[in-house]
């Protein structure tokens, strides 16, 4: 019977669906046309495979009007009884068939079952048996597209530096998002340097593309911060002479996050000082790269074809006396004799310096202090960067003087307050002055906060005004003496009957002859002590008693 009879149908608005598709397109950086094609293919595959091989599925989308239609151009018309039976057995057949009665209502050209007609498929009525496989296929195809695009692009970027931010931490490593494409990348813990930023989510940093894992299920891009190549790339980027070929990086040895050694040589006759050009004025070039690597210390040394000279350079900043080679049938080793004072420097913290020097020169290096070498009766050959015994003695003397100076400074720095008092008698007075000053500051603050203002009985000034001047012991004594004499000479003043006239006369004479010990007053801090005796609330104190 004839199929392929087409009828008009209603548009189906699916705004929520457009929002979802837009999010996928934006986050995955995929064209909208590709999104439509992938979705349409997912519906076709699911319906033709599981329901009707003859179904012709088409997805029609209008992004401007936000209209989406999913149609079957070859839906089968079934008798009403057959349609009900089919739908009851498999609800998904609604996408592939229509009852004869419904078909006649849609088109007058439909006369019997077995015809075909175009029908719209309602998204809301899609059964899970259809929708879930479609969704799974859609997600899978989007993932495959992103993987293929990532593989194509980042295979060419292997061995370069990119910017990425940390978005998640797992037991095995760190998940990053590359800034340019927002694609995920993985940094195994064994490829991660000890960085202060390593546990800070959202921090943007420069990382090295170590490898591309084609068979990985999740992230394909493998990142690293410990590779020697990341330092090599930084140097190329920041040092124009390296990029131009005037300076050549021969070898790099690196303990990521701690210290690196870079051996270079100059390929230009016009470039006299290759080390200076690489390090930069005041070390600014190499310092910038060090900061980019979280403060990793970078030693730049001159490469030499002479193995002895190269080893001497590699052990910098330590000085060397002698470089001796010991060979056996199975192996060979290099014994480097250094001044006793440079023994720790040559080895380095946790053995890093000698380890990097060994890696850089590709030799096994043992460090011997000069005194041990002499005791072991080694044959000292002065082939290092110390010319002779006299220069060695000067180095040791300088180190000894420096150590003594350091010990003295350290001892002075850590003296206790008690020891300072013993050494400097004025320490106590200085401390007392500071306490008095602190008291005056605190007292002035209280006066200002509470606005306490009292009348000064002697000078008729406010206490706040009084606080602006320091106490003068002579004036206080004179005022007190004058007040006492007035009370004695005034006949109206009541005098304590316990004193005789002769006793009072004697007291008066002794007071006149009394002299203030200004040195004692100064020692006690009275000249700087701002306190008004008239401010003391003696009456309140007596009442409390």
UniProtKB/TrEMBL annotation:
Keyword Ion transport recorded: no
Main location group: cytoplasm
Signal peptide positions (record): none
Chain ranges of the S1 motif domain: 159-226
Domain of life: Bacteria
Keyword vocabulary terms for this entry: Cytoplasm, RNA-binding, Transcription, Transcription antitermination, Transcription regulation, Transcription termination
Places the protein is found: Cytoplasm
Pfam families documented for this protein: KH_NusA_1st (PF13184), KH_NusA_2nd (PF26594), NusA_N (PF08529)
Similarity field: Belongs to the NusA family.
UniProt xrefs under HAMAP family: NusA_B
The protein's role, per its UniProt record: Participates in both transcription termination and antitermination.
NCBIfam families associated with the record: NusA
Subunit architecture: Monomer. Binds directly to the core enzyme of the DNA-dependent RNA polymerase and to nascent RNA.
Stated name of the protein: Transcription termination/antitermination protein NusA
Lineage, opening ranks: Bacteria, Bacillati, Mycoplasmatota, Mycoplasmoidales, Metamycoplasmataceae
């Amino acid at each position: 019977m004839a199929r392929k009879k087409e009828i008009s149908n209603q548009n189906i608005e699916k705004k929520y669906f457009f929002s979802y598709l837009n999010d996928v397109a934006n986050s995955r950086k995929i064209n909208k046309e590709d999104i439509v094609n992938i979705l349409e293919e997912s519906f076709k595959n699911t319906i033709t495979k599981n329901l009707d091989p003859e179904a012709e599925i088409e997805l029609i989308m209008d992004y401007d009007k936000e209209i989406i239609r999913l149609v079957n151009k070859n839906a089968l018309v079934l008798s009403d009884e057959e349609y009900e039976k089919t739908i009851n057995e498999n609800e998904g057949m609604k996408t592939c068939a229509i009852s004869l009665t419904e078909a006649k209502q849609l088109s007058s050209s439909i006369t019997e079952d077995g015809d075909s007609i175009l029908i719209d498929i309602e998204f809301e009525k899609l059964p899970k048996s259809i929708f879930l496989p479609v969704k799974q296929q859609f997600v899978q195809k989007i993932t495959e597209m992103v993987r293929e695009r990532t593989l194509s692009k980042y295979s060419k970027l292997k061995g370069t530096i990119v910017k990425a931010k940390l978005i998640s931490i797992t037991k095995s490593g760190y998940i990053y998002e590359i800034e340019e494409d927002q694609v995920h990348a993985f940094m195994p813990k064994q490829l991660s340097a000890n960085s202060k930023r390593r546990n800070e989510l959202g921090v943007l940093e420069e990382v090295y593309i170590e490898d591309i894992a084609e068979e990985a299920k999740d992230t394909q891009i493998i990142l690293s911060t410990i590779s020697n190549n990341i330092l090599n790339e930084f140097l190329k980027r920041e040092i124009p002479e390296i990029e131009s070929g005037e300076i050549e990086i021969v070898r790099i040895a690196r303990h990521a996050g701690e210290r690196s050694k870079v051996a270079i040589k100059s390929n230009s006759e016009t470039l006299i000082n290759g080390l200076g050009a690489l390090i930069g004025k005041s070390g600014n070039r190499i310092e910038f790269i060090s900061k980019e690597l979280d403060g990793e210390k970078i030693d730049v040394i001159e490469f030499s074809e002479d193995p002895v000279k190269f080893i001497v350079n590699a052990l910098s900043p330590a000085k060397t006396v002698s470089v001796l080679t010991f060979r056996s049938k199975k192996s060979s080793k290099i014994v480097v004799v250094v001044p006793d004072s440079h023994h720790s420097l040559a080895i380095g913290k946790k053995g890093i310096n000698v380890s990097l020097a060994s890696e850089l020169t590709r030799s096994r290096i043992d460090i011997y202090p000069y005194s041990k070498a002499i005791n072991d009766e080694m044959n000292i050959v002065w082939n290092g960067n110390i010319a002779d015994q006299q220069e060695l003695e000067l180095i040791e003397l300088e180190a000894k003087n420096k150590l003594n100076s350091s010990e003295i400074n350290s001892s002075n720095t850590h003296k206790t307050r008690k020891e300072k008092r013993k050494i400097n008698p004025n320490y106590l007075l200085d401390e007392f002055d500071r306490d008095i000053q602190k008291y005056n500051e605190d007292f002035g603050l209280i006066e200002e906060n509470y606005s306490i203002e009292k009348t000064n009985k002697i000078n008729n000034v406010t206490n706040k005004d009084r606080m602006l001047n320091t106490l003068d012991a002579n004036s206080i004594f004179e005022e007190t003496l004058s007040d006492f004499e007035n009370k004695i000479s005034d006949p109206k003043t009541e005098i304590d009957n316990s004193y005789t006239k002769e006793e009072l006369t004697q007291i008066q004479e002794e007071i006149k002859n009394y002299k203030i010990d200004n040195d004692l007053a100064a020692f006690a801090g009275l000249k700087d002590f701002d306190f008004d005796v008239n401010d003391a609330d003696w009456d309140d104190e007596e009442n409390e008693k």
